[in-house]
């Protein structure tokens, strides 16, 4: 079979004369060298796959991206019911591989992930032989939609992890058949030795010389969705590493051209921040709704809102604007006019008269304050190269700044008094072959909000001024009205740094560094990779509570790592060990080192187990609180979350249990259905024990049984 495919392949290549490429580069000639290379690569790949003879159909792509070449091979059965595909490099290293088509996989797993590890690794090393002895299993997880286990392997050299190199292997949960695999691996770069390391303490001290912890106000949301402002320290740069041997500092992992950091200890690049985007509903109100709302005494009309924009002497509003639309929208009790202005004259291409202005604005419908403005500017795209020198740039950078600040003082004097200019730069800049210096059409300015000398991370004002007209054509303010906490009692920067470096994520690792040639391409060209051994920060979230020093999340709440690797010390040999371990392998469990399978389970704990499964319509009102559950109460909750509550409420059920008299009338239907499905074990059991408290171990088995029923119906 193998010989037949290769023969057909070579014949096809000779007839066609070219090898097809999916690359945007174009097609490449299929010379003798390419044919020989393809034959060699294909044979190597087939020895790794061990394809059955039923895969008789074959096609391929050849992709050549500059210095990188990859092959795509695809095999399928004659009826196309089964397919196997491979992407690999020109040395037959697999990049990704997968199969799809007919399979009998369904339901929940009946084997624990750990039981499949020996078979999975046999497959792993057949597909990726170079990985043997150089990977460690980091974790495994169950994939519901594929009825499969996914194993994550991380590259390890000299007992040190290389996070950038990994293999994800996905196999069927019953027979460990290949579903897919993805590999990121550097086969050529040399790995530095791990001797004579400076140690973590010296690395932290080195990083401390470069890394500052900045105290800032941040805006998050409370549990009710309301904005809140909190104080936190955060590092001024989110990546920094110290060479594990020399202590040399790195602030980048990707380099373009001859970057000086490849030769020097560190660079001094400034790190900026971007403001959050605004928010608002997209649905438009009807004319009747707009009329009714506009009747409210505290709202200005749409005409007045448009006049406010047109009459503002600082804003760039093109004189040819002839079309206006205005929509009123409400958010959390605040009403805003969203205005669109356009020049709808048809373009005249015969006379090169094609520029047509447009603008948009947001106006507070209660007080008439301009909240945002954005207008088009006739820029370099509407000029011929030879006409650029005729443009009169009437305003300097300093003058544009003065204009923008006058505008801010006129509409937001109180807020302007609390901001500081943090950056300014050309907003539209054009380099022409006709001039030795760039044409700067406008300047942009960014102002950051401060309180008691402390900056906000995402509150401030920004805008741009056109140098030709001296008008503001872009203005936006991001500002939270939530209460600003006092900074009294905050910890020192030094203490914040110590706390930050104690969080999980500061590690000794081998990392892959990319170097690109500076060709002007957005992706670069001639990608080169090197491996370096560093102590580096990969701490997330990177916020330190300004008062307690604890790690907090993006809403200012204490950070809790959601556990998915449940490993219990008290389940070995117990009746429910397998059920507990299967759920644990799916990232489902209860907190703590011990599962305590004989302990009575609470409603909230049962809800915690069920809520992580996709088959149930989980509702907190059904399972919440610290109350322990009887078996009949658990039956009602689980049957309800399975969507069978309407059926269970029918007065048609008769129980055959010897203790049926102990079953509450309102639980009869739920107990009958649960028993018939075998959710509590043997469907032919003589007793149900309805009022007996459900244990944690029984709950694990119950959840697994119910999920099996649900998934089998999909």
Report on this model:
The strands form 5 sheets. The chain has an 8-stranded antiparallel β-sheet with strand order 3-4-5-6-10-9-8-7, covered by helices on one side. An 8-stranded antiparallel β-sheet has the order 16-17-18-19-23-22-21-20, covered by helices on one side. Strands 14-13-25-24-15 form a 5-stranded mixed β-sheet. It is α+β, with helices and mostly antiparallel strands and 714 residues long. The protein starts with a helix and ends with a helix. The protein contains 15 helices and 27 strands. The relative contact order is 0.09. The model is unreliable at 1-33, 264-286 and 520-525 (pLDDT under 50).
Keywords, please?
714 residues, alpha+beta, 4 domains, 8-stranded antiparallel sheet, 23% helix
Helix content: 10-25%
Distance between the termini: 38 Å
Structural class: alpha+beta
Number of domains: 4
Question: Order of strands across the widest beta sheet?
Answer: 3-4-5-6-10-9-8-7
| Count of helical regions | 15
């Amino acid at each position: 079979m193998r010989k037949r495919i290769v023969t057909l392949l070579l014949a096809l290549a000779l007839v066609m004369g070219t090898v097809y490429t999916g690359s945007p580069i174009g097609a490449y000639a299929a010379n003798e060298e390419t044919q020989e290379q393809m034959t060699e690569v294909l044979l190597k790949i087939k020895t790794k796959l061990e394809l059955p003879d039923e895969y008789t159909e074959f096609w391929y792509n050849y992709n050549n991206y500059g210095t990188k070449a990859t092959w795509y091979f695809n095999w399928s059965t004659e009826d196309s019911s089964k397919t196997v595909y491979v992407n690999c490099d020109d040395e037959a290293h697999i990049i990704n591989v997968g199969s799809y088509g007919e399979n009998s996989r369904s339901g929940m797993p009946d084997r624990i992930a750990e039981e499949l590890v020996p078979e999975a690794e046999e497959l792993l090393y057949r597909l990726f032989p170079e990985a043997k002895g150089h990977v460690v299993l980091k974790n495994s997880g169950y994939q519901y939609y594929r009825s499969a286990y996914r194993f994550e392997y991380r590259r390890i050299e000299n007992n040190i992890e290389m996070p950038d190199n990994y293999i994800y292997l996905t196999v069927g949960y019953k027979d460990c058949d290949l579903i897919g695999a993805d590999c990121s691996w550097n086969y050529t770069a040399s790995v530095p030795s791990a001797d004579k390391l400076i140690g973590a303490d010296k690395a932290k001290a080195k990083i401390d010389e470069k890394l500052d912890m900045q105290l800032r106000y941040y805006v998050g949301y409370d549990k009710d969705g309301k904005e809140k402002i909190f104080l936190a320290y955060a590092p001024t740069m989110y990546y920094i590493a110290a060479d594990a041997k020399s202590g040399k500092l790195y602030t980048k992992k990707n380099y373009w051209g001859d970057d000086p950091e490849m030769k020097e200890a560190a660079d001094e690049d400034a790190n900026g921040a971007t403001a959050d985007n605004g928010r608002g509903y997209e649905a438009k109100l009807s004319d009747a709704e707009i009329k009714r709302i506009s009747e409210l005494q505290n709202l200005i009309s749409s005409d007045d809102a448009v006049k406010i924009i047109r009459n503002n002497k600082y804003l760039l509003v093109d004189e040819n604007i002839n079309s206006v639309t205005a929509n009123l929208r409400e958010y959390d009790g605040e009403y805003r006019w969203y205005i669109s202005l356009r020049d709808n004259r048809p373009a005249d291409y015969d006379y090169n008269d094609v520029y047509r202005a447009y603008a948009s604005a947001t106006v507070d419908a209660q007080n008439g304050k301009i909240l945002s403005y954005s207008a088009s500017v006739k820029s370099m795209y509407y000029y011929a190269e030879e006409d650029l020198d005729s443009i009169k740039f009437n305003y300097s950078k300093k003058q544009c700044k003065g204009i923008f600040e006058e505008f801010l003082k006129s509409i937001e004097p109180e807020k302007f008094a609390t901001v500081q200019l943090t950056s300014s730069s050309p907003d539209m800049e054009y380099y022409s072959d006709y001039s030795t210096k760039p044409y700067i059409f406008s300047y942009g300015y960014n102002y950051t909000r401060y309180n008691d000398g402390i900056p906000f991370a995402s509150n401030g004002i920004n805008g741009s001024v056109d140098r030709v007209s001296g008008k503001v054509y872009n203005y936006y303010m991001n500002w939270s009205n939530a209460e600003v906490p006092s900074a009294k009692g905050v910890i020192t920067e030094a203490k914040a740094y110590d706390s930050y470096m104690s969080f999980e994520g500061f590690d000794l690792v081998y990392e892959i560094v990319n170097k690109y040639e500076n060709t002007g391409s957005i992706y670069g060209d001639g990608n080169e990779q090197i491996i370096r051994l560093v102590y580096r920060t990969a701490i997330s979230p990177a916020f330190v509570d300004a008062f307690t020093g604890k790690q907090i999340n993006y809403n200012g709440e204490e950070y809790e790592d959601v556990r998915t690797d449940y490993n219990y010390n008290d389940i070995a040999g117990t009746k429910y060990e397998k059920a507990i371990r299967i759920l644990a392998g799916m990232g489902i469990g209860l907190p703590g080192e011990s599962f305590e399978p004989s302990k009575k389970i609470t409603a909230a704990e049962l809800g915690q187990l069920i809520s992580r499964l996709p088959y149930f319509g989980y509702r907190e009102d059904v399972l919440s609180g610290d109350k322990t559950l009887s078996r009949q109460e658990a039956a009602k909750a689980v049957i309800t979350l399975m969507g069978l509550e309407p059926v269970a409420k029918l007065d048609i059920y008769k129980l055959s249990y010897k203790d049926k008299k102990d079953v509450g009338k309102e639980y009869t239907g739920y107990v009958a259905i649960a028993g018939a499905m075998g959710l509590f074990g043997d469907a032919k059991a003589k007793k149900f024990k309805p009022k007996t408290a459900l244990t944690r171990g029984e709950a694990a088995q119950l959840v697994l049984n119910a999920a099996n029923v649900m998934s089998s119906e999909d």
